[in-house]
Fold this sequence. Notes:
By secondary structure, the chain is mainly alpha-helical. The protein is built from 16 helices and 4 strands. It has helices spanning 2-16, 35-46, 50-67, 124-145, 148-163, 198-205, 214-233, 235-241, 246-261, 265-283, 291-294, 299-319, 335-340, 343-346, 363-372, 381-386, and strands at 90-92, 96-97, 109-110, 175-178. The strands form 2 sheets. A two-stranded parallel ribbon has the order 1-4. The longest helix is centred in the middle third of the chain and has 22 residues, at 124-145.
Amino acid sequence: MRAERFRWLLAALLLGWGIAPAQSAAPAPFILLDAGKMAAYKAAYIKGQPVEVAQVKAVLRAADKALRQRAYFITGKSQVPPTGDKHDYMSQAPYSWPDPTRPDGLPYINKDGLRNPEAAAFTDEDNLKDLFRDVKTLGVAYYFTGNEQYAACAAKQLRGFFLEPATRMNPHLNFAQAIPGVSTGRCYGMIESRDMVEIPDALALFSGSKSIDARLVGGLKDWFRQFTTWATTSKLGLEEGRTRNNHSTFYDAQVIDFALFTGDETLARKVLETMTLARLAVQLAPDGSQPLELARTRPWNYVTMNMLGWVRVARLAEKLKVDLWNYTLPDGRGLHPAIAWFKPYLLRQKQMDRPDVVPVSNHAVLTLYHLASPHYADLEAEKVFALNPDFARVPWAL
Length: 398
Protein backbone atom coordinates (compact mmCIF):
# COMPACT_ATOMS: atom_id res chain seq x y z
CA MET A 1 0.00 0.00 0.00
CA ARG A 2 2.81 2.40 0.94
CA ALA A 3 4.64 1.63 -2.29
CA GLU A 4 1.51 2.35 -4.32
CA ARG A 5 0.95 5.69 -2.56
CA PHE A 6 4.61 6.60 -3.15
CA ARG A 7 4.30 5.92 -6.87
CA TRP A 8 1.22 8.14 -7.12
CA LEU A 9 2.97 10.90 -5.12
CA LEU A 10 6.08 10.70 -7.34
CA ALA A 11 3.98 10.91 -10.51
CA ALA A 12 2.13 13.93 -9.15
CA LEU A 13 5.38 15.68 -8.27
CA LEU A 14 6.86 14.99 -11.69
CA LEU A 15 3.79 16.41 -13.40
CA GLY A 16 3.83 19.39 -11.08
CA TRP A 17 7.41 20.10 -12.07
CA GLY A 18 6.51 19.75 -15.76
CA ILE A 19 8.32 16.41 -16.10
CA ALA A 20 6.08 13.78 -17.61
CA PRO A 21 7.14 10.18 -17.03
CA ALA A 22 8.04 8.34 -20.23
CA GLN A 23 5.07 6.60 -21.76
CA SER A 24 5.46 3.13 -23.19
CA ALA A 25 4.83 3.04 -26.90
CA ALA A 26 1.69 1.29 -28.09
CA PRO A 27 2.47 -2.21 -29.39
CA ALA A 28 3.88 -1.76 -32.89
CA PRO A 29 2.63 -4.07 -35.64
CA PHE A 30 5.03 -6.08 -37.76
CA ILE A 31 5.23 -4.85 -41.34
CA LEU A 32 7.62 -7.24 -43.10
CA LEU A 33 8.02 -9.92 -40.45
CA ASP A 34 5.30 -12.52 -39.85
CA ALA A 35 3.93 -12.25 -36.31
CA GLY A 36 2.59 -15.81 -36.36
CA LYS A 37 5.89 -17.35 -37.43
CA MET A 38 7.79 -15.30 -34.87
CA ALA A 39 5.42 -16.44 -32.11
CA ALA A 40 5.69 -20.09 -33.18
CA TYR A 41 9.48 -19.90 -33.17
CA LYS A 42 9.42 -18.33 -29.71
CA ALA A 43 7.15 -21.08 -28.42
CA ALA A 44 9.56 -23.72 -29.76
CA TYR A 45 12.47 -21.88 -28.14
CA ILE A 46 10.70 -21.78 -24.78
CA LYS A 47 10.01 -25.52 -25.05
CA GLY A 48 13.73 -26.10 -25.57
CA GLN A 49 13.60 -27.33 -29.16
CA PRO A 50 17.29 -27.78 -30.15
CA VAL A 51 17.24 -25.97 -33.52
CA GLU A 52 15.42 -22.93 -32.18
CA VAL A 53 17.53 -22.80 -29.02
CA ALA A 54 20.75 -22.91 -31.05
CA GLN A 55 19.66 -20.08 -33.36
CA VAL A 56 18.44 -17.85 -30.54
CA LYS A 57 21.68 -18.42 -28.64
CA ALA A 58 23.59 -17.28 -31.72
CA VAL A 59 21.48 -14.10 -31.80
CA LEU A 60 22.09 -13.49 -28.09
CA ARG A 61 25.84 -13.75 -28.61
CA ALA A 62 25.61 -11.18 -31.40
CA ALA A 63 23.37 -8.96 -29.27
CA ASP A 64 25.82 -9.09 -26.37
CA LYS A 65 28.50 -7.95 -28.79
CA ALA A 66 26.21 -5.14 -29.98
CA LEU A 67 25.90 -3.93 -26.38
CA ARG A 68 29.62 -3.14 -26.45
CA GLN A 69 29.65 -1.32 -29.79
CA ARG A 70 30.36 2.38 -30.12
CA ALA A 71 27.57 4.80 -30.91
CA TYR A 72 26.76 4.99 -34.62
CA PHE A 73 26.35 8.40 -36.21
CA ILE A 74 27.46 10.16 -39.40
CA THR A 75 28.65 13.49 -38.00
CA GLY A 76 32.12 12.18 -37.15
CA LYS A 77 33.24 11.75 -40.76
CA SER A 78 36.34 13.53 -42.04
CA GLN A 79 34.71 14.65 -45.30
CA VAL A 80 32.51 17.75 -45.44
CA PRO A 81 29.36 17.72 -47.62
CA PRO A 82 28.82 20.55 -50.13
CA THR A 83 26.45 22.21 -47.65
CA GLY A 84 29.14 22.28 -44.97
CA ASP A 85 26.75 20.30 -42.72
CA LYS A 86 28.12 16.96 -41.51
CA HIS A 87 24.58 15.89 -40.63
CA ASP A 88 24.15 15.31 -44.38
CA TYR A 89 24.83 11.74 -45.50
CA MET A 90 27.70 11.28 -47.97
CA SER A 91 29.09 8.43 -50.03
CA GLN A 92 31.05 7.89 -53.23
CA ALA A 93 29.86 5.63 -56.04
CA PRO A 94 31.70 2.36 -55.39
CA TYR A 95 32.28 1.48 -59.04
CA SER A 96 33.71 4.88 -60.08
CA TRP A 97 37.46 5.07 -60.74
CA PRO A 98 39.97 7.74 -61.82
CA ASP A 99 40.28 8.02 -65.60
CA PRO A 100 43.86 6.79 -66.29
CA THR A 101 44.01 8.88 -69.48
CA ARG A 102 43.73 12.18 -67.58
CA PRO A 103 46.39 13.68 -65.28
CA ASP A 104 43.92 14.46 -62.49
CA GLY A 105 41.79 11.37 -63.15
CA LEU A 106 38.69 13.53 -63.61
CA PRO A 107 35.97 12.90 -64.40
CA TYR A 108 35.88 9.43 -62.86
CA ILE A 109 34.74 6.53 -65.05
CA ASN A 110 32.57 3.52 -64.26
CA LYS A 111 33.92 -0.03 -63.85
CA ASP A 112 30.80 -2.05 -63.13
CA GLY A 113 31.16 -4.49 -60.26
CA LEU A 114 34.69 -3.44 -59.30
CA ARG A 115 34.83 -1.52 -56.03
CA ASN A 116 37.23 1.39 -55.78
CA PRO A 117 38.93 1.30 -52.34
CA GLU A 118 38.58 5.09 -52.24
CA ALA A 119 34.87 4.68 -51.58
CA ALA A 120 35.60 2.93 -48.28
CA ALA A 121 36.95 6.21 -46.87
CA PHE A 122 33.35 7.46 -46.77
CA THR A 123 32.03 5.89 -43.57
CA ASP A 124 28.39 7.01 -43.51
CA GLU A 125 27.16 3.90 -45.31
CA ASP A 126 29.03 1.66 -42.86
CA ASN A 127 27.49 3.48 -39.91
CA LEU A 128 24.06 3.17 -41.47
CA LYS A 129 24.40 -0.56 -42.12
CA ASP A 130 25.94 -1.24 -38.71
CA LEU A 131 23.02 0.56 -37.08
CA PHE A 132 20.45 -1.51 -38.99
CA ARG A 133 22.27 -4.75 -38.16
CA ASP A 134 22.66 -4.07 -34.46
CA VAL A 135 19.19 -2.65 -33.83
CA LYS A 136 17.65 -5.66 -35.59
CA THR A 137 19.83 -8.07 -33.61
CA LEU A 138 19.00 -6.34 -30.33
CA GLY A 139 15.32 -6.45 -31.26
CA VAL A 140 15.36 -10.19 -31.89
CA ALA A 141 17.26 -10.73 -28.62
CA TYR A 142 14.70 -8.66 -26.71
CA TYR A 143 11.79 -10.49 -28.36
CA PHE A 144 13.03 -13.84 -27.09
CA THR A 145 14.29 -12.79 -23.66
CA GLY A 146 12.57 -9.58 -22.58
CA ASN A 147 15.97 -8.36 -21.39
CA GLU A 148 15.60 -4.58 -21.12
CA GLN A 149 19.30 -3.87 -21.61
CA TYR A 150 18.93 -4.87 -25.27
CA ALA A 151 16.10 -2.38 -25.72
CA ALA A 152 17.97 0.35 -23.84
CA CYS A 153 21.00 -0.05 -26.10
CA ALA A 154 18.86 0.07 -29.25
CA ALA A 155 17.03 3.14 -27.97
CA LYS A 156 20.33 4.94 -27.40
CA GLN A 157 21.58 4.07 -30.88
CA LEU A 158 18.31 5.12 -32.55
CA ARG A 159 18.14 8.42 -30.69
CA GLY A 160 21.73 9.23 -31.53
CA PHE A 161 21.45 8.42 -35.21
CA PHE A 162 18.03 9.87 -36.02
CA LEU A 163 16.98 12.32 -33.31
CA GLU A 164 19.71 13.88 -31.14
CA PRO A 165 20.45 17.41 -32.46
CA ALA A 166 24.22 16.95 -32.18
CA THR A 167 24.45 13.70 -34.14
CA ARG A 168 21.21 13.12 -36.08
CA MET A 169 21.25 12.38 -39.79
CA ASN A 170 19.31 14.82 -41.94
CA PRO A 171 16.44 12.93 -43.66
CA HIS A 172 17.74 12.92 -47.22
CA LEU A 173 20.42 11.37 -49.44
CA ASN A 174 21.30 14.33 -51.63
CA PHE A 175 25.03 13.59 -51.46
CA ALA A 176 25.04 9.80 -51.77
CA GLN A 177 26.94 7.94 -54.49
CA ALA A 178 28.79 11.03 -55.70
CA ILE A 179 31.21 10.72 -58.63
CA PRO A 180 34.28 13.00 -58.57
CA GLY A 181 34.20 15.36 -61.52
CA VAL A 182 30.61 14.40 -62.38
CA SER A 183 28.16 15.00 -59.53
CA THR A 184 27.98 15.63 -55.79
CA GLY A 185 25.19 13.09 -55.41
CA ARG A 186 23.02 10.78 -57.49
CA CYS A 187 19.64 9.12 -57.23
CA TYR A 188 21.30 5.71 -56.94
CA GLY A 189 22.24 6.51 -53.36
CA MET A 190 18.87 5.18 -52.20
CA ILE A 191 20.19 1.66 -52.68
CA GLU A 192 22.37 2.31 -49.62
CA SER A 193 19.31 2.86 -47.42
CA ARG A 194 17.46 -0.24 -48.66
CA ASP A 195 17.81 -2.06 -45.32
CA MET A 196 16.33 0.85 -43.38
CA VAL A 197 13.10 -1.17 -43.65
CA GLU A 198 14.57 -3.21 -40.77
CA ILE A 199 13.86 -0.36 -38.33
CA PRO A 200 10.02 -0.39 -38.22
CA ASP A 201 10.01 -4.16 -37.67
CA ALA A 202 12.71 -3.86 -35.03
CA LEU A 203 10.42 -1.49 -33.14
CA ALA A 204 7.73 -4.18 -33.27
CA LEU A 205 10.20 -6.66 -31.80
CA PHE A 206 10.64 -4.28 -28.86
CA SER A 207 6.91 -4.12 -28.09
CA GLY A 208 6.45 -3.95 -24.32
CA SER A 209 9.82 -2.34 -23.68
CA LYS A 210 10.10 0.66 -21.36
CA SER A 211 13.11 1.96 -23.29
CA ILE A 212 11.41 2.13 -26.69
CA ASP A 213 8.89 4.68 -25.48
CA ALA A 214 6.20 6.70 -27.24
CA ARG A 215 8.43 9.75 -27.58
CA LEU A 216 11.16 7.78 -29.35
CA VAL A 217 8.75 6.01 -31.69
CA GLY A 218 6.99 9.29 -32.46
CA GLY A 219 10.30 10.97 -33.24
CA LEU A 220 11.31 8.13 -35.54
CA LYS A 221 7.99 8.28 -37.37
CA ASP A 222 8.51 12.01 -37.92
CA TRP A 223 12.01 11.35 -39.32
CA PHE A 224 10.80 8.57 -41.62
CA ARG A 225 7.90 10.74 -42.76
CA GLN A 226 10.36 13.48 -43.76
CA PHE A 227 12.60 10.97 -45.53
CA THR A 228 9.62 9.59 -47.45
CA THR A 229 8.64 13.11 -48.49
CA TRP A 230 12.18 13.63 -49.79
CA ALA A 231 12.06 10.30 -51.67
CA THR A 232 8.75 11.15 -53.35
CA THR A 233 9.23 14.86 -54.11
CA SER A 234 12.94 15.64 -54.55
CA LYS A 235 14.75 15.55 -57.89
CA LEU A 236 16.95 12.63 -56.86
CA GLY A 237 14.14 10.71 -55.21
CA LEU A 238 11.91 11.02 -58.27
CA GLU A 239 14.80 9.97 -60.53
CA GLU A 240 15.33 6.84 -58.44
CA GLY A 241 11.66 6.02 -58.78
CA ARG A 242 12.05 6.16 -62.57
CA THR A 243 15.00 3.74 -62.73
CA ARG A 244 14.36 0.38 -64.36
CA ASN A 245 16.48 -2.21 -62.55
CA ASN A 246 16.92 -3.31 -58.93
CA HIS A 247 17.08 0.33 -57.81
CA SER A 248 13.40 0.81 -58.64
CA THR A 249 12.47 -2.36 -56.74
CA PHE A 250 14.15 -1.18 -53.57
CA TYR A 251 12.76 2.32 -54.06
CA ASP A 252 9.25 0.88 -53.98
CA ALA A 253 10.06 -1.32 -50.99
CA GLN A 254 11.30 1.64 -48.99
CA VAL A 255 8.53 4.07 -49.86
CA ILE A 256 5.75 1.52 -49.29
CA ASP A 257 7.28 0.31 -46.02
CA PHE A 258 7.85 3.80 -44.63
CA ALA A 259 4.38 4.93 -45.74
CA LEU A 260 2.82 2.02 -43.86
CA PHE A 261 5.01 2.74 -40.83
CA THR A 262 3.92 6.37 -40.71
CA GLY A 263 0.24 5.67 -41.36
CA ASP A 264 0.02 6.80 -45.00
CA GLU A 265 -1.70 3.81 -46.56
CA THR A 266 -2.87 5.96 -49.47
CA LEU A 267 0.72 6.59 -50.57
CA ALA A 268 1.66 2.95 -50.07
CA ARG A 269 -1.20 1.79 -52.27
CA LYS A 270 -0.50 4.44 -54.91
CA VAL A 271 3.13 3.33 -55.29
CA LEU A 272 2.18 -0.34 -55.43
CA GLU A 273 -0.59 0.09 -57.98
CA THR A 274 0.89 2.80 -60.22
CA MET A 275 4.60 1.95 -60.11
CA THR A 276 5.36 -1.53 -58.78
CA LEU A 277 3.02 -3.59 -60.94
CA ALA A 278 4.32 -1.92 -64.11
CA ARG A 279 7.88 -2.95 -63.23
CA LEU A 280 7.12 -6.65 -63.74
CA ALA A 281 7.02 -6.20 -67.52
CA VAL A 282 10.20 -4.09 -67.46
CA GLN A 283 12.35 -6.32 -65.28
CA LEU A 284 11.18 -9.89 -65.84
CA ALA A 285 11.16 -12.07 -68.95
CA PRO A 286 8.45 -14.71 -69.52
CA ASP A 287 10.96 -17.46 -68.64
CA GLY A 288 11.59 -15.83 -65.24
CA SER A 289 15.00 -14.39 -66.07
CA GLN A 290 15.99 -10.81 -65.33
CA PRO A 291 17.70 -9.43 -68.46
CA LEU A 292 18.71 -6.11 -66.91
CA GLU A 293 20.49 -7.80 -64.00
CA LEU A 294 21.98 -10.61 -66.10
CA ALA A 295 23.72 -7.97 -68.23
CA ARG A 296 25.77 -6.82 -65.23
CA THR A 297 29.30 -7.98 -64.42
CA ARG A 298 27.94 -9.61 -61.25
CA PRO A 299 24.82 -11.27 -62.64
CA TRP A 300 24.21 -13.81 -59.87
CA ASN A 301 24.59 -11.15 -57.20
CA TYR A 302 22.15 -8.80 -58.89
CA VAL A 303 19.43 -11.26 -59.89
CA THR A 304 19.42 -12.49 -56.29
CA MET A 305 19.47 -9.02 -54.79
CA ASN A 306 16.67 -7.75 -57.01
CA MET A 307 14.43 -10.73 -56.30
CA LEU A 308 14.95 -10.28 -52.56
CA GLY A 309 13.65 -6.77 -53.09
CA TRP A 310 10.61 -8.17 -54.87
CA VAL A 311 9.97 -10.55 -51.98
CA ARG A 312 9.92 -7.56 -49.64
CA VAL A 313 7.46 -5.77 -51.90
CA ALA A 314 5.26 -8.88 -52.07
CA ARG A 315 5.14 -9.02 -48.28
CA LEU A 316 4.27 -5.34 -48.13
CA ALA A 317 1.55 -5.90 -50.73
CA GLU A 318 -0.05 -8.41 -48.37
CA LYS A 319 -0.63 -5.53 -45.94
CA LEU A 320 -2.61 -3.82 -48.70
CA LYS A 321 -4.60 -6.99 -49.52
CA VAL A 322 -2.82 -7.42 -52.86
CA ASP A 323 -1.52 -10.88 -53.81
CA LEU A 324 1.67 -10.04 -55.66
CA TRP A 325 2.98 -13.57 -55.13
CA ASN A 326 0.50 -14.91 -57.69
CA TYR A 327 0.06 -11.80 -59.82
CA THR A 328 0.75 -12.78 -63.44
CA LEU A 329 0.86 -10.82 -66.68
CA PRO A 330 -0.91 -12.27 -69.76
CA ASP A 331 2.40 -13.57 -71.13
CA GLY A 332 3.17 -15.40 -67.86
CA ARG A 333 5.58 -12.94 -66.30
CA GLY A 334 5.41 -12.76 -62.53
CA LEU A 335 7.23 -13.53 -59.30
CA HIS A 336 6.54 -17.26 -59.42
CA PRO A 337 8.53 -17.99 -62.61
CA ALA A 338 11.15 -15.43 -61.57
CA ILE A 339 11.85 -17.28 -58.32
CA ALA A 340 11.53 -20.72 -59.94
CA TRP A 341 14.24 -19.58 -62.38
CA PHE A 342 16.79 -20.11 -59.59
CA LYS A 343 15.84 -23.75 -58.98
CA PRO A 344 18.13 -25.57 -61.46
CA TYR A 345 21.08 -23.49 -60.29
CA LEU A 346 20.40 -24.21 -56.63
CA LEU A 347 19.90 -27.92 -57.37
CA ARG A 348 23.28 -27.82 -59.15
CA GLN A 349 21.76 -28.83 -62.46
CA LYS A 350 22.91 -25.67 -64.27
CA GLN A 351 25.69 -23.11 -64.02
CA MET A 352 25.62 -19.44 -64.88
CA ASP A 353 26.81 -18.59 -68.39
CA ARG A 354 29.04 -15.89 -66.91
CA PRO A 355 30.46 -15.99 -63.39
CA ASP A 356 30.43 -12.87 -61.23
CA VAL A 357 33.62 -10.85 -61.46
CA VAL A 358 33.67 -10.94 -57.65
CA PRO A 359 32.78 -14.23 -55.92
CA VAL A 360 29.52 -14.23 -53.98
CA SER A 361 28.13 -16.59 -51.34
CA ASN A 362 24.76 -18.28 -51.68
CA HIS A 363 23.42 -16.95 -48.36
CA ALA A 364 21.28 -14.29 -50.04
CA VAL A 365 19.71 -16.64 -52.57
CA LEU A 366 19.00 -19.22 -49.85
CA THR A 367 17.29 -16.49 -47.84
CA LEU A 368 15.25 -15.70 -50.94
CA TYR A 369 14.23 -19.34 -51.27
CA HIS A 370 13.41 -19.55 -47.56
CA LEU A 371 11.09 -16.53 -47.80
CA ALA A 372 9.42 -17.55 -51.05
CA SER A 373 9.07 -21.32 -50.65
CA PRO A 374 5.88 -21.21 -48.52
CA HIS A 375 4.12 -19.62 -51.51
CA TYR A 376 5.26 -22.04 -54.23
CA ALA A 377 5.18 -25.81 -53.78
CA ASP A 378 7.16 -26.51 -56.96
CA LEU A 379 10.44 -24.89 -55.81
CA GLU A 380 11.71 -28.17 -54.28
CA ALA A 381 12.96 -26.10 -51.38
CA GLU A 382 13.70 -29.05 -49.09
CA LYS A 383 16.06 -30.50 -51.70
CA VAL A 384 17.81 -27.14 -51.96
CA PHE A 385 18.20 -26.81 -48.20
CA ALA A 386 19.42 -30.41 -47.93
CA LEU A 387 22.30 -29.39 -50.21
CA ASN A 388 23.03 -26.47 -47.88
CA PRO A 389 22.71 -27.92 -44.35
CA ASP A 390 24.51 -25.02 -42.68
CA PHE A 391 21.92 -22.47 -43.78
CA ALA A 392 19.69 -21.42 -40.86
CA ARG A 393 16.03 -20.80 -41.66
CA VAL A 394 14.79 -18.19 -39.21
CA PRO A 395 11.58 -16.10 -39.26
CA TRP A 396 13.35 -12.79 -38.69
CA ALA A 397 15.27 -12.95 -41.98
CA LEU A 398 14.47 -10.22 -44.50
